[in-house]
Amino acid sequence: MSKEKNRKRCIAVFVLMGMLITLISRSAFAGNAPQLLVETKNSLLVFSIGGNGKLYQSYFGQKPGHATDYALLQSTRHEAYIGAGMGDLFEPAIRVIHADGNPSLDLVYVSHKTEKKGDDLSLTSIRLKDPKYPVEVLLHFAAYFKDDVIKTWTEIRHQEKKPLTLSNYASSMLHFEASKYWLSQFDGDYMTEMRMKESQLTTGIKVLDSKLGTRAHMYRAPAFFLSFNKPSDENNGELIAGTLAWSGNFQCTFEIDQQNSLRVINGMNPYASEYKLPAGKTFETPAFIFTYSNKGKGQASRNLHRWARQYEVLDGDQPRLTLLNNWEATHMDFNENVLVELFEGAKQLGVDLFLLDDGWFGNKYPRDGDKTALGDWQVDKKKLPSGLGHLVKEAGNRNLKFGIWLEPEMISPKSELYEQHPDWILKLPNREESYSRNQLVLDLINPKVQDFVFNLLNDLLTENPDIAFIKWDCNRMLTNTYSPFLKENQGNLFIDYTKSLYQVMERLRKKYPHLPIMLCAGGGGRVDYGGLKYFSEFWPSDNTDGLERVFIQWGYLNFFPSLTVSSHVTSMGKQSLKFRTDVAMMGKLGYDIRVKNLSPDEIRFSNAAVQTYKRISEVIWFGDLYRLVSPYEENRAVLMYVNEARNKAVLFSYLLNFRRKEYMGKVLLSGLDPDKRYKIKEINLLPDAVSTHPDNGKSYTGDYLMKVGLNLSPGKISPLSSAVFELVME
Ligand code: DGJ
């Protein structure tokens, strides 16, 4: 039989099966609609199959206490995953243009299966298909029972004659019915990342999105809280926290219809991305991750943190390295002697690792400024004549591990790489090159470029096997975007770029599964769970001013666990060294400072702080976070971490820029065992200082601390001061 005949026969069988399934669905499912359940400890997502064979989301929310009541959840008002071009008049989940030009997709239920993947995880996959066209869609729901987290994504495939054009392809569509909806979003810019804003949604569409390509989250994060009926606070309210695991362009859409129902669609941004999907290939969307809480935002964050540490973040259950980075201390102006001096400083601090930042490479065009050398990843022989091996050794002699900065996806127009491979660069034909930070982006979609990036890291790590840490930077977004490799399929570019990045990371992780790599994009321009599968931590912002960092880190900690939030003590900001250190300690502590400019007392303090941090970091990294007083509500921020056994806790209290005679009430602690006693000790004090805090050394029951609370600002208080307390069960 000819290929063409065979193909036609396949399509006919596919279509016939679809019609049959629709008929079976119609007859077998008359009366009570059959249900599909996705369950976690406290939440329930119910799908029903309607008499028309279509899949409906009948319920999502708090799980009823009696499973017998689930059968009452039968609503067929909201189709689960809506194809454009049929009856629905609001935002679709998916829009395709068939090979014959028909721009519609009708999806009917075909089958589903639920597999137990362990005690805590079950995976439900639901197959839908178009009865008239050979296109199928698979909806996946991974339910992480104990953490109340659901991870959902979609696969699309077809057997049409020509490539199918995909113009919308949501990872998830969810429907809600509440009287009011409140959205907390997180946005900003370079140096002002993750500012929290809350507003009530009104009829129409609210979109959070990015079109930046790389460094895609610089203006907005694909992460939000969505509260139902009334705004939630830390401990009260019904909400979901949601985030998209995708390092590229994203789109989170919230649409309230004429009946006050809300549909929430999350996925890759379809902007400039009409994707051509060849027959037989699977188009997989990134995952949308969400958690339900009816106990406020704090619970939602803790759910995500616990889940992320166990399942998503690279080595999320393993300790991190404290480090000294040289970027803010030297920028690109250093040589071997300066670095060795910095190693001495790192040794004085007592950190685990020295991280060499930008400026160590390039010979024909040395990297003395940001106009040259990206792509020429050979050590600068003038600056560092003895090579990297020498530096690794010198660091080792001081008991320090060594890490290094790279910006693998980028290229300087003044580089040997540019001279050798002008066709490896994303840029529009017939247009001027468009620079940002004087650089261009490599066409990572091209497999040769992927090899180049892989080999760059692989060679570096092979030649210097003791390199123990990488900082992977990405200092520009995409503009002037055109891939010479993709030719006529430019609509695939934004999506394939990010997929290519993940492919390179997959390859690297196969060979170097546990090497810590920091995700950085000129500050916090690229932070999401898609990336954190491959990266152990991220750089939240180039703004390291202690006061600003309280807000920035607070923002990220809503969605990401503390051991991923790199928080460095620098000389930026007018606050005391103690304040800046206390702020950095709430995340993953590091330094980016010229130690020789510190006084002997400051060095003593910092060294003791590092020791203290190492002692308490287990609670900070793996404990539960309780945000007690928000800097958005008062001129102070208070948060605490409690370990799983609830026998240790660490409390951070930061007084911000308050005004004269501003009264600060007692703070109610959280997460403790009410029936146990905890001894309170102020820690991280200046050298030779003794705590003057009236509760220092005292013991209270957890019940007292959570109901009566502590006065954290007794006596005369000063703005921009801070205190850290350790609580140990007696
Ligand atoms: C931007 C990063 O955020 C900084 O920490 C530093 O690594 C510079 N890039 C180096 O160019």
Automatic annotation (TrEMBL):
GO biological process: carbohydrate catabolic process
Active site: 473, 542
EC number: 3.2.1.22
Residues spanning the signal sequence: 1-30
Reactions accelerated catalytically: Hydrolysis of terminal, non-reducing alpha-D-galactose residues in alpha-D-galactosides, including galactose oligosaccharides, galactomannans and galactolipids
Domain of life the protein comes from: Bacteria
Protein name: Alpha-galactosidase
Organism of origin: Pedobacter steynii
Lineage: Bacteria, Pseudomonadati, Bacteroidota, Sphingobacteriia, Sphingobacteriales
